[in-house]
Amino acid sequence: MINNEGGQVFANRVLRSVTALILASVTGCYVDRAPQFPRPDSRLEARDRELFHESTGGNEAFFSRIGFLKGPLTLEGILSAARAVPQGTSNLRVPLDSDAVIGGRAFTKGEVIDTGLDLPKGEKLPLGLVVQDSQKGKVIGASCALCHSSYDPESNTIVDGAPNGDLQLGLLLALASNSTMLFPHTDAHPWRYVRGKERGMNDGGRFVYLPSKELFEEAVDKVLLRWPPGFVDAERDLSAAPRQIPSVFSAAVSRWSPSHPFGEVDERRPYGLSRAVYEAIVEGDHSPVAVIQSALPVERLDFSPPSSGTPDSSLYKRGRELFSQVGCTSCHGEAPRIVSRSEVGISPLRRADPRLNGRARFTPEGDTLRVPPLKGLQWSAPYLSDGGVAVSADKVRHGIPDTLLVHVPADPKESLRALLDRGERDKVITVNRSDVATSSMQITGDGHLYWIDAQAGFSIEDQEAIIHFLLHSQE
After folding, report:
1. Segment 229-250, tens digit of pLDDT
2. Of the candidates 209, 141, 220, which has an alpha carbon nearest to the alpha carbon of residue 177?
3. Alpha-helical segments (H) within 112-203
């Protein structure tokens, strides 16, 4: 019944009741780790978890090309900030090392930014960042845990499969020294930023004028800075439509081969451009494109986050019965379904520009959706395919601009209520649409017009029961 493409902030970062065991320290990385996991109950699982936390799949090449941690935000700044919080944190705050103007926004040396990086207690490096020595010095990559695990300082527990809902990924990427390379993940089209005869090159006997490096990078960075915390635009479709970081479980059961933001597509003519022109636009070095491969056999892994708390048996039973009675199981049954967006009342994402993409098509997220599982919904607020259904725990704040963008978590219970109650949903949609940054990212909270509210003939007790079931379901 809940159309949620991934996870987001978990309410107030509280998880006190997860059974924790210690995995043996991993060697060969910049720092050894001994994180706590909820279910390391077999040798195979322990090996997979080691890969999950330490393997990068070779994405160091991609991070090197975009200049990650080579701008105002540096590795040295992160290490220094980590030393200052030995007790651990779910949001490492890091001073910048230099002045810069990024996407039209002025950053100053010494300014402290919220990164959303999770730093487990006693660690020297945030969760998911992997730093290794090479002949050229230290190289930086990211493991799955950067986005798909979350750390709770109160219980000193790492929870795999719970997305890092406050990770400021857009900001971290915008601060890279060559973020222009990420233009396919934005709606910044290169030819909009050609200015006179500033730059050009001969392309197979035809002279091509290139976009202004400064103007084009500023346009890309403006889009990256609009990504809400816990969101990423994984599709290289030349549109601006970030979505929530998905849970690992959702990726594992999907029949799609999802795009990944940390790599390039190895195409002979990327986005309709010759390879030479593409490399010139992104300030490449004409070296072979790094094609990122998954380091994990995700089709056999289940990293769904565990339930927290004990459900009320009678309330859970009533909610489960309602869930079946009203027909939710027709979509949210045992086997994942692929449905059209029109079937559930959700508009398709904007088409890619065929002039640059070389073909008019929808991305895998374009005209269809995979119905998500119900597991771990308490970890994955806000909800809906665009992640737009967000409400604060006190029911006062509605929509992404009044929650995530002002560092207020989306409460799972109240956000689910807004998914089911049309009066609450109207408030969410109104706020989202009124904010230029949010609406420009195609985040509205529209669609999935299936209601459990008074207008549909349900009592508040019915609504409470079905929300209780959804928050505790492991189906």
Report:
1. 999 998 888 889 999 888 765 4
2. 220
3. 145-148, 169-174
